[in-house]
Amino acid sequence: MIRTAIVLFLVAAAAVAILALTRDAGTATLTWLDWRIDMTAAAAALLVLFTALAATLFWRLAIWLLEIPKRAEQARTERRRREAGEALARGFLAAAAGDGGEARRMALKAGELSDEHPALVRILTAQAAEAAADPAAAKAAYGAMVAFPEMRLAGLKGLMQTALAEGDRAAALRHAETAYGLARTARWAWRAVLEAKLEAGDWAGALELVKSALDRKIVSPIVADRTRAALLTALAASLEQGDEKARKQALDHASQSAKLAPAFAPGAVMAARLAGEGRKGGGYIEAAWKLQPHPALWLAYRDMTTAETPRERARRLWTLAALNPDHRESRILMVEQALIAGEISGARSAAAALADEPLTARLAGLFARAANAAGAVDEARAWIARGVAAPQEADWSDLDPEGHAFNYRPDDWARLVASYGETGELIHPRLERRERAMSDLPELPVSYVESAAFVAAAETGAAPLAIDDPGLDGLYETEPEPEQPPPAKPPTRRRQSTVAPRPPK
Prior knowledge:
By secondary structure, the protein is mainly α. It has a domain at about 1-65. It has 23 helices and two strands. β1 (about 25-30) and β2 (about 35-40) form a beta hairpin. About 30% of the residues are buried.
């Protein structure tokens, strides 16, 4: 305002100066009571302007003096606000660092200094109680937050976490369900409810929950499809051993799973097994093999038809491998089908194409079977010895000698649903538990003396033995031979084993 008055005064002064320079300043007369004042018009204009400016300055001075108490109060409020913000920041840092005492002290200080951020003060109070290992105080703080609409979700999440820490899963589920009903986008609440349903084996309820999460845009469509596919397969597995009606429902669920995620090996195997022999059952496995070959797929495909000759079965497996010929599993299958058909040279050439792959127990067993079929018994035993120390395959077939593929328990299916839905990765709980499984290494009789030394050394972790090493005498019980004079020719060079010893357990 003062700046505006000064600008107006300068403009008016310039106008008066222009009038004066024209030498026609004009006249002005002021009469008040018995007083009469005569002056030029320019002087009168300047007098009015100076008077107005002085009045303005006086008025602003008076207002400034009157507002001194208000400004002092504002300064105190601003100082308290800064101190409260600093206390909150230090309190949250102390809570994050696990210093419960300092966090509590800062929470009390922030509560005394500021009334503008009650939500932050309450959250800090709860976190300080957690850092101080005081669950009762933390529960009270979170419970108080539930009474305020803007803090209700945070309070419910805190109550759920404290209930889980106390082992009260029922209370934690109640808080999560309440939060999921209040907020459409509370992913943590949806996740907690989903985990509870998976733990209880409520596959149908979990399916409805995933559908609602997709409607609310909590999860992406691809995650929803993978999760639903795994849930439908788990539901089909729970109905597979029921009556005819239950098996029909299981087939419907498995078929839906194969449509949602064709590459999901458990769903494809389940659908094929329930569909039985025929083109329909094989179609599920073929569609999955095109996208993501898996050992369980070709094993299930192999056993789908029993009334066929080995060559017919091998031809059918070759057709499956040709759907994705460049994949590692397809190249392994080419060796398997050649062994089934009795085509030894084809098996050996197909195995040679896998020579650059990292050696695993599965590959070592495959090479050993191909070598044994070709009559190379020594080579087969050498591969077996190397396979004993080789790592297991991460992509296990999930088959045991007496059961079905993916014959999982409910808790295994729950883990599989969570893992495959989020990441698209298959887990192998039975392999992780080291349950009985089909051996990757064939059993060959140890009948050839020179090879027996190599295999025994590899299995015991001893150093490789030479062919004519005297230590072989302890491996086999033979009749002592009469001593003979040493030969006149130079001693022969010892041949060392090329089999890597097995590391000691």
